[in-house]
Amino acid sequence: MAETDSMDAAEALARADGLRDAVNRRSRWLVRYQLAYGVTSFAMVLALGLFEGAAGVVVSMALWVPAIVALTVYAARQPVAHRGMARSHGVMIGAWGVLYGAALAVGIPAFPGDLAWWLPAAAAVSAPGLASAWLTSRRTAPRAAW
């Protein structure tokens, strides 16, 4: 009887490991989402700062709106998300919002069209998406067999 119980436990653990690996593999879509979010954020902020006035808004929104629509549709079509995905996504969006707000609040009145401000500002605003992609990549990476 004890042998049967230990085999059942071993099978259950193997099944749990297999399910975890499958969820992680199917959750790798989020890395692509976060990379795209970071890269698009960079381009949008750079365009907003370098094109002055209404042209900056038009060019940046011409990049941002289609990208966000595409990312939203892409995310909605994914059947799996790893444990903690909602929290990590919330942190990414919150950090992005703070950095975006700061970049615009300082940059628009003080540094219109100044590449020396807008290039690092765009890099800073893209950092939450890129850092989240790196963390998600590590979290969902295939695990080595023991």
TrEMBL record:
Domain of life: Bacteria
Transmembrane segments: 30-51, 57-76, 88-111, 117-136
Keywords from the named record: Membrane, Transmembrane, Transmembrane helix
Name assigned to this protein: Uncharacterized protein
Organism, scientific name: Actinomadura yumaensis
Phylogenetic placement of the source organism: Bacteria, Bacillati, Actinomycetota, Actinomycetes, Streptosporangiales
